[in-house]
Structures are given as structure tokens and as C-alpha cells.
Amino acid sequence: MIRFADDFNSNNDDRNEVKKSEIKKIKKILKAIFNSEGFHEGAFKESATLVDLVKIVDEVLLQKNNNSINIIIDRNANNSLDILIKEIS
After folding, report:
1. What is the pLDDT of residues 10-46, one digit of tens each?
2. Could you tell me the residue range of the domain that residue 76 belongs to?
3. Closest CA to 42 of 30, 54, 53, 52
């Protein structure tokens, strides 16, 4: 497990805000990498169908009670879909 210190003792508040922002981004990336089960930010589903798209929306918005999902959908030559979950809130 990786733990980042949340305490900043430096006198430079602007620098601390940048550090806090960077740490939040790193935590988000690590969470996406190691959270391989289910649908989460950064999840990619290759060669999906419309049924998979409905399943993603159902799980993320209704079952997990989120308010918003930002998805990128690319159509493949064989009419399957590549789905990337960009953001969940």
C-alpha cells in the first residue's frame, strides 16, 4: 500500500497547494490502476456492445448512486464499441 503524507509544514502556502493538487492527481491515477474490478474512472472496455454500455450506466449511476459519468465511445469497423470512462462524480 502506498500512503502519502497529508501534512505540509512549509511556510510557502502556494507551493503546498500545488503539492496537494499533484498528490490528489497521483492518488487518483493509482486508484484507477489498482481498482481493476467493476467500472471506475480510467476503465476501458474493448469491443463492447450496446448491452455493455447500458450495464456500465446502470452500475455506475444507479447501483453506485453517482450523479454523472463522462464516457468516450468509439465505434469500430465491426460495429463494436470501445468505451473509456473518463470521469465519475
Report:
1. 555 666 777 888 888 888 777 766 655 678 888 889 9
2. 13-88
3. 30
Residues making up the chain, counted from first to last: 89
Is 84 contained in some domain? yes
Which residues, in sequence order, are bridge partners of residue 44? 84
* Alpha carbon distance 82, 44 (integer Å): 7
Q: Is this structure's pTM higher than 0.90?
A: no
- Cβ-in-10-Å burial (0-12, 13-18, 19+) of 8 comes to middle
Cα separation of 20 and 12, whole Å?
12
Q: What does the alpha-carbon distance between residue 71 and residue 59 come to, in Å, rounded to a whole number? A: 14
List, in sequence order, every beta strand (DSSP E) within 1-89.
44-48, 69-75, 81-88
